[in-house]
């Protein structure tokens, strides 16, 4: 409850935070789908890490007083007029920050001052329409390098939550996670792991799953061992103006429908942008991801994903990878310097190192995708195994495994993966399902205009 004055007392919040810490869960194992809670069916599902328990994922730094909601910080810093609480770094950052969030009412704005908050446990946000805002991405730092309680850095369970203008470092699990929420926004956030290509880093920087209305903008993720920016089993998604590098996957849209991915810069990952459908998840048949005006370049890093996860099967040097996903559009992107290939379209197939898909209703084929008006340059110059042996060196800018649904109506135009006006980009159907017997570089069968996807409502 709010007090009559401009601030709120934190005496209750501190007690509640102490109780919350005493009951906190330790990090769970699973696959890489999240180094996260065992309660999340996707956290460990094949989300790219390919597994169900954790997506393979498994992330730093003075002090004044706690500056909690009851009074102004002892530094004399006033609470900004648009904040309901102001928290400053203190001798007990967990109690101060978690206490402020526990005490917050729906719709409150909890502000964090400049400085480094040292946190050894997961921080939770359960109020609806709450904003957690720092002083700036490079000014407010949440350091989880000593974390030994909880699976993630920040766990969001309230609807309408916005996190904004701060950095999360060195979480052992996902940086910021939201499960089954509506209207979650990540704005001007950085999630970082300092170690290069380390399996000890967290799996995901951002991990909204099972959600509706996801916005990720003006943000950055560095060093995730699965996907830096991940959205899974969700709808109505906007991912714009972000940077992702030194991750296994820069951006991954998985088992989701209705995403716009625009004006992002993904570079120096193992793969730049993944559009995946995986079996065994509660939500299937994701489609309709629109990717445009992205710069996808030099994604040639080693794959340091957890062995056995889906993302660990991705060869280094991939620009875009569409796996078992239908009716997506990739247009007006700059795709360059990816040593294996610019775009690969593949079915979900054990032949590429994936676990068997045991769900009889799973659609394993990549069909009806539309790739047009992109700029390709210097891709495929030194393809990774097994692409080098299967396709050859150099590898074309766009490659397709040639696998088609045998139960689908023959020659249905809606199932054709269309290529249109991609400059002088070259192409190969490498006929994986035919045993590589009938490879073809003929663009004729795939030269067509597909159906353009609508923009999401401006957000």
TrEMBL record:
Low complexity composition-biased segments: 39-78
PROSITE patterns, alphabetized: PROKAR_LIPOPROTEIN
Extent of the signal sequence: 1-29
Keyword terms of this UniProt record: Signal
Native species: Nannocystis bainbridge
Span of domain Right handed beta helix: 139-277
Coiled-coil regions listed in the entry: none
SUPFAM superfamilies per record: Pectin lyase-like
InterPro entries (UniProt xref): Beta_helix, Para_beta_helix_rpt-2, PbH1, Pectin_lyas_fold, Pectin_lyase_fold/virulence, SO_2930-like_dom
Pfam families given in the database record: Beta_helix (PF13229)
Protein name (database record): Right-handed parallel beta-helix repeat-containing protein
Region of interest called Disordered, as start-end residue ranges on this chain: 27-88
